[in-house]
Amino acid sequence: MKKLNIMIIPMLPTLYGRRYQLSKYLAKKNEVHLILWNMPYPVTLKNLLSNLKDSWRYKKSKREGIVIHKIRRLPFFFPLINRWFFQKQIKKIFNNFNIDIIVSESFFSETEPPPDLPIISDLNDYYEAYAEIYGSRFYKLAYKFLKVKGTIEGQVKRAKAVFAVSNILFEQAQKNNKNVFKIPNGVESWVLYKKYNRGKYNFGMHSLIYVSTFGQWSGLPNLLHVVYELKKDFKDIKLVLVGEGPQIPEAIKLIRILNLNENVKLFGSVWDRKKLFEIINSCEVCLNISQKNAFRDAASPIKIFEYSALGKKIVSPNLEEVKKLDFPNIFFYEEFEKTKNLAITIKKALLEKIDDEKVKLKVKQYTWENITNNIEKILYQCLSEMRQI
């Protein structure tokens, strides 16, 4: 088959998550051009100075087979001008590198692909639900000002095909496009087969790990009260927290108040993936804590696939997309706010045994290699149909 020239416009200009995995694995057999740009968020003096200095600079580089274009934009916040500027540069790259098709995760008007170029719309989050449930006043204002809903619907309508990570997003996309495919998130295959040294970070038989950006949705204070309750049954219980976020300072105070200094280990952010998996593998139970709501039900959590690839037990709310996986290692709980329900489920997970090989066998179908093979078939079909028109 002919090698494809694919452009990927990510939801956010960063090299991790779904956007990076799709780029990396598609690039093994195709030429992939990933578009990045400089943003001043979160708003700090360092980010603002970097944005002012680097926004105007175009830079082309290569990483793991991906051609990365860091394109120019006006610094700070000029969405109307930057939209025109963004689309002009996308057209130039599209023509200069003979791009066949664009896979767009873009959800706001400033980074929408030009309307006359062929696109695949990749829906990986339920942005409307996020704005409604978690959005501050400023976020909701920005959601409307940047025309998020209209931008997504417009791309779905004109797309040659639509990828959706969940059934909820699949059904929404079908209202505006008949050519919709469910493409969930996944895991890198090396996580399934790598042998880890548990002794390096051995947190004991009653250890929990929670990897998150600890915002209001994470329920971290409630979790610490759960650990306090579980300590009555498991004196050696250990909670490992990996990540940063606005709930961490509150958590540190609560750890002192509840006398959990010996029971909680804070790592902060861990960007080294191999080190992260070593830490996770040294714990017994992995936590996927959140409220059950429309935003969470529509998500395809990458951490669920990664924890399962390690053969780990998982405690999670009864989320629609997670339930559909039917993984035997997931222990579901109801009513996120109630300490007792979560404590009972974690205790059950700590005490029960699972067949980790059976779990790994289940997760093998969700490797990024398999996912991108499916995507390639869809792209070839779309291009074939385009050439017949």
List keywords for this structure.
Rossmann fold; six-stranded parallel sheet; alpha/beta; eight-stranded mixed sheet; about 400 residues; 2 domains; 17 helices
Describe the structure.
The structure is a single chain. With 389 residues, the chain is α/β, with parallel strands linked by helices. It has two domains: 5-186 and 367-388, 3-Layer(aba) Sandwich (Rossmann fold); 189-366, 3-Layer(aba) Sandwich (Rossmann fold), CATH 3.40.50.2000. It is built from 17 helices and 14 strands. It has helices spanning 17-26, 45-54, 79-96, 127-133, 137-145, 148-158, 167-174, 189-193, 220-230, 248-257, 273-281, 294-297, 302-309, 320-325, 339-351, 356-363, 368-388; strands at residues 5-9, 31-36, 59-63, 66-70, 101-104, 119-123, 161-164, 180-182, 207-211, 238-242, 264-268, 285-287, 313-317, 330-333. It has an eight-stranded mixed sheet, with helices on both faces. A six-stranded parallel sheet has the order 11-10-9-12-13-14, sandwiched between helices. Helix 9 links the parallel strand 9 and strand 10. Helix 9 (220-230) packs across helix 15 (339-351). The longest helix has 21 residues, at 368-388. The chain is globular, with a radius of gyration of 22 Å. The protein starts with a strand and ends with a helix.
Coarse morphology: globular
- How many runs of DSSP E, i.e. beta strands? 14
Q: What portion of residues is helical?
A: 40-55%
Output the structural class: alpha/beta
Low-confidence spans: pLDDT under 50, at least 5 residues?
none
CATH C-level category of the largest domain? Alpha Beta
Q: What value does the average pLDDT take?
A: 93
How many strands, what sense, and barrel or not for the largest sheet? 8 strands, mixed
User: Roughly how many Å apart are the termini?
Assistant: 21 Å
